[in-house]
TrEMBL record:
Coiled-coil spans in chain: none
InterPro entries on file: Sbt_1
PANTHER family: SLR1512 PROTEIN (PTHR40400:SF1)
Native species: Rhodohalobacter sulfatireducens
Pfam families tied to this protein: Sbt_1
Transmembrane segments: 15-34, 41-60, 72-95, 107-125, 137-159, 180-198, 210-228, 240-259, 304-332
Protein name: Sodium-dependent bicarbonate transport family permease
Record keywords, A-Z: Membrane, Transmembrane, Transmembrane helix
Length: 333
């Protein structure tokens, strides 16, 4: 009962937080037919700033971290990315009225990681004074890249079998290169490299830190507006996508929480680190994933996988997943 009460208290508190408030505000503005528009260039700049901050901080911490302690969480991140996509593909393969490529793309997007959800989780943990390894956000690419690659490889194998009726090779290295060249992962990896190899502490604390929360609030506003717009698109495809989008984030997060707890027992992975691992597993890519999947699986319907992710998956991961995993951590640890 204490867990349920704690979860609902945190759930209600989340609705008062600026991050979720801006997300809901964006949805309301769009629902009222406002002509408010935030240029895409500003959106891309904000995403770059957030990921650079996360990358710089992670790189600085990795420079001083025990790499053996990080190795197991990094391996588990790869495993979670692959496992969640495989589960999603299996689920969609048995559901009626679901196109194969659409199901694979949706599974890939929900196996990949949302930079914005990660940023919200970091703010919430800091507000609640829950410590975590500064390198924990750097687990992002370890989960994100394998998930996207697996989805694209499986989809391409399926399509080539349909075309030629036989097994054909898929150039995995090209897929990896395209994923790494994506704007979100490029920014995060650049930040990691600069934090790891340069004395970037001063620029992090004087420039990126003070702007982080303000930029995050604008990103949430943009995402809220897009979430409302995507609801219309989601209505045009099978309702199974909405059901999956509501359940998958919590299922993925619980799998990651369990594996993260094993890392806690074996290498001392912190409670906050386990929460971050669960949150990035519950998130669904809103920045790097859509363009990567559009290029890698062009036959898939974006209304299905992007609509499910933006209109249902992301709000569930932020509003329900974050307070759930924090409450669970306070009971388990």
């Amino acid at each position: 009962m204490d867990f349920i009460a704690d979860f609902f208290i945190r759930f209600l508190v989340q609705f008062q937080s600026p991050t979720l408030g801006f997300l809901i505000g964006g949805m309301l503005v769009a629902a009222l037919g406002s002509k408010l528009k935030i240029p895409n260039a500003i959106y891309q700049f904000i995403v770059f700033m957030l990921l650079m901050k996360i990358g710089l901080e992670g790189g600085i911490e990795i420079r001083e971290a025990n790499l053996l302690e990080m190795a197991l969480p990094a391996f588990l991140s790869i495993l979670i990315g692959l496992l969640t996509v495989r589960i999603g593909i299996t689920v969609f393969s048995i559901l009626p009225g679901v196109d194969k490529e659409d199901g694979i793309a949706t599974a890939g997007l929900f196996g990949a990681v949302s930079a914005s959800t990660l940023a919200v989780a970091i703010v919430v943990l800091e507000e609640e004074s829950i410590p975590f390894e500064a390198w924990a956000p750097a687990l992002y690419p370890f989960m994100d890249i394998p998930a996207l690659i697996l989805a694209i490889v499986v989809a391409n194998i399926h399509l080539k079998k349909q075309e030629k009726g036989e097994d054909t090779d898929v150039n995995v290295w090209n897929i990896i290169k395209e994923s790494l060249r994506g704007s979100a992962l490029s920014a995060l990896l650049l930040g990691l490299a600069l934090g790891l190899l340069t004395n970037s502490d001063s620029v992090l604390h004087s420039f990126y830190d003070p702007l982080f929360r303000g930029f995050l609030s604008i990103l949430m506003l943009i995402m809220g507006m897009e979430a409302y717009d995507r609801i219309k698109e989601l209505r045009s495809v099978a309702h199974w996508y909405a059901v999956y989008a509501a359940l998958a984030p919590l299922m993925h997060g619980l799998i990651a929480f369990g594996l993260g707890y094993i890392a806690h027992l074996l290498v001392g992975f912190s409670a906050g680190g386990v929460v971050i691992l669960a949150v990035i597993a519950s998130s669904n890519s809103d920045i790097s994933g859509p363009p990567t999947l559009r290029a890698g699986i062009p036959s898939a319907n974006p209304s299905a996988y992007i609509g499910a992710s933006t209109s249902v998956g992301t709000p569930i991961a932020i509003a329900v997943g974050i307070p759930l995993f924090i409450a669970l951590a306070q009971i388990v640890f």
